[in-house]
Amino acid sequence: MAGYTRNGFISPGANSDDEYDVGFKDDALEADFAILLKRTRGFEIKVVRGDGSCMFRAVADQIYADEGMHDEVRRLCMDYMERNRDHFAPFVTENFSRYIARKRQPGQYGNHVELQAISEMFGRPIEIYEYSENPRNIFYPTINSLEMHAPIRLSYHGSSHYNSVIDPFTPMVGIGLGLPSCISSGMDNLHQAIKESEKLSVEQAILQSQLALTDIERTEKEINEQASQMERLFFRSVDLDI
């Protein structure tokens, strides 16, 4: 289904205001915004490539410290939405299957629906900053708030472009991936964290096997003790009869 842009033209397949084909550029406003975030929150805006995949690039930078993994974020997002069709279909204004197929293509803009899906996928709120030190929008995962991880932070520029907002003193790479280590100083650390996660999974599997074996042994011991007790009671009963 087509959507209308702010200038009245129809944008094929647009599903929300952040898929519009118009934007604006104001260098002074952008400079003031960057200074404001740095001064009030200590955040820095990390610019990602503007090629239609900027939203997925910005998220990839937040999750993997590598905007080049935007295709993986897009794939995971669309897979998640496809698996949860009943949850997301009411918020899509075109045929859902066509929408998913279209959004799988590189360069297709992401919007609020995809941001909600990404928030749920990684169990992290997503904060959108737009020329303010406070987020304009926050997307929450559909889980207990006590279980939520640190937020993914994006900035929105000129009504058409997303960037990654980072806290240089609080690394968050890997959060939401189930990794035991999320310290960020580059992809080497992330790869090491993934290896540690795999090692931890093996160790947990071994521990669970040991615990299961312990439970079996404990059960067998209890059965044997009960059998011995029954045997003693039986012979005692026989002795009394004699």
UniProtKB/TrEMBL annotation:
Q: What is its EC number?
A: 3.4.19.12
Q: Which residues form a coiled coil?
A: none
Q: Does the keyword Hydrolase apply?
A: yes
One Pfam family from the record: OTU
Q: Which GO terms describe its molecular function?
A: cysteine-type deubiquitinase activity; K63-linked deubiquitinase activity
Which PROSITE patterns does this UniProt record tie to the protein? OTU (PS50802)
Highest taxon of the lineage: Eukaryota
Start and end of every OTU domain?
A: 43-168
Provide a GO biological process annotation: protein deubiquitination
Q: Give the enzyme class.
A: hydrolase
Keyword list (alphabetical) reads: Hydrolase, Protease, Ubl conjugation pathway
Q: Which reaction does it catalyse?
A: Thiol-dependent hydrolysis of ester, thioester, amide, peptide and isopeptide bonds formed by the C-terminal Gly of ubiquitin (a 76-residue protein attached to proteins as an intracellular targeting signal)
Entry similarity comment:
Belongs to the peptidase C85 family.
Q: What is this protein called?
A: ubiquitinyl hydrolase 1
